[in-house]
Amino acid sequence: MGGILNLNMKKLAGIIALLIFQLFLVGRGERLCAQVLVNNGGLIFSTNDTIYTNGGVSNEANGTFSNSGQLYINSSGSDPGYWSNIAGNAGFTNSAGVQGASTITCYLIGGNQNIEGNATTEFHNLRLRGSGIKQLNGVDAIVHDTLDLSTFELATGTNRLYVTNTDPNAIENVHSQGFVSSLAGGFLARNTAQASRYVFPVGSSIGQFRYRPVEVAPVNSASNQYAVRFFNDMADNDVPAYPVAQRQATMSRVNEYYYHNITREQGASPADITIYYDAASDGPTTGIAHWQNAPQWEDIVSSPDAPNYGYSSYTRQAWDFSNTSPAFALMKLINECGEMFVPTAFSPDGNGENDMECVYGKCVEELYFAIYDRWGEKVFETTDMTQCWDGTYRGRQMNTAVFVFYMKANLTDGTEVVKKGNISLIR
Known about the structure:
The structure is a single chain. This protein has one helix at 12-25, and strands at 4-8, 31-34, 36-40, 43-46, 50-53, 56-60, 64-67, 70-73, 82-86, 105-108, 113-117, 121-128, 134-137, 141-150, 153-155, 160-163, 171-173, 179-181, 187-192, 198-200, 203-204, 210-211, 214-218, 224-232, 251-254, 258-266, 271-277, 287-292, 296-299, 303-308, 311-319, 327-333, 345-346, 364-372, 378-382, 392-393, 396-397, 401-411, 416-425. It is mainly β. It has 2 domains: 4-333; 345-425, Immunoglobulin-like, CATH 2.60.40. The termini are far apart.
C-alpha cells in the first residue's frame, strides 16, 4: 500500500473498517504495509502480525498501539523513517483488556532515525537494525522489556533513556559496537532488583571513537535506579567542569581522555562500580578517582578486576553515593608500585639469611631476570618472581665471584623497568 495510511478513529466508519481489518489479521500472521503510518487517534491492535512502514510512524491524538507482533519502521527517500509520538500518551499501551497486554517489538531498520515528538514513548521491546545512528530528538524514552542495540549507536543527546526491566540481561548489544551515547544532561538509566552486575554499554562517536562500558552491581536486591553517562574527549561541547590538574598530590595522572558520570537516581543501596578501559590506549592506570571535597580528583581505593568485553577494569566496592558528585575517572598514583629491587650481594651458605638472589617488587605483570658469569655465560634465568638463584650452575656450587644481572619487568600500571648491575656471590 503506497502513500500515507491515515487511521482516523474519530470517525465511526473508520472504526468499523479498522475493526473488520483487525479481525481479518488476528491469527493469520498477516502484514500491513504503508509508507507513512499516521495513527490519528486510533487503537491499532493485532495479534502476532507485522506492521511495516517504509517512511515512518506519526502517532497522534491519543492514538495507541496494542499488539503482540512486530512494528518495523524503515526510511525511504524523503521519508526519514522517524517514530514521532505527539499523541499525549506512551504510544504503546500496557493495559490489560479483552485484547491482553501489549508486547509489541518495535524495530528501527532505516538509516539515521529519530525517536521524537512531545510525549515520552514507552516501548516494550526496542531493537535497532539497518544503518546509521538512532537518536532521541527532544524527548526521553522508556524501554520496559528488552533494549537490543545490536551494533548501533543510540544517541540520547541531552535526553534520557530508561530501561525499567530489572533483568541484568535486559540490554543486548555487540560489545565495542552497540552503545548508548549522551550529551550534558542525558544518560542511560537502569532499574535494578538483584545483587548482580548490570552493564551500561556507553561510549561516544564524537571526537575519538571510544566504547567504555560500566557495570553497577547493587549490594542487595532492593529496588534502585542507576544512571551512567560517558563524557568523551571534551569534544562533545561540554564545559570541562572537572579539570584533570586538580587532583590529590598522591596522583601523577587523571585520565585526560574521558570520564563517566555515575549516579543513583532512585533507591538507597550502595553498589560496586566497575569501569572498563583499554590498557593499550588509555594510558597508565592504577585505580578510580572521584571528584569530591576540595573539590578535586581523589583516590577512592579501588582494585583491579577481571577483564571482560576485551577490556581491563577496576572496581570500587560498595560505593554509597553519599557524595553526590557524579564524576568518576581512571587515575594513576605516584609510584604506586614502588621500586624494583635486585640485591647486589648474597651468601648462599645455608644459614637461612640472604641465601638466595631474588627480584623484589610489586605490580609485576611480566618479568625476565638473567645472571651471567664474568665470561658472559648465562648461569641463571627466570620469568617467575618466585624463583630465585641459589648460587649453583648445572648442579655445581659457584665460587665467590662477581656476576652480572639483567632484569626487565612490565608493571600493571604500564611502566617498564629495566635494570642492569653486578651481584657479588660470597661464600
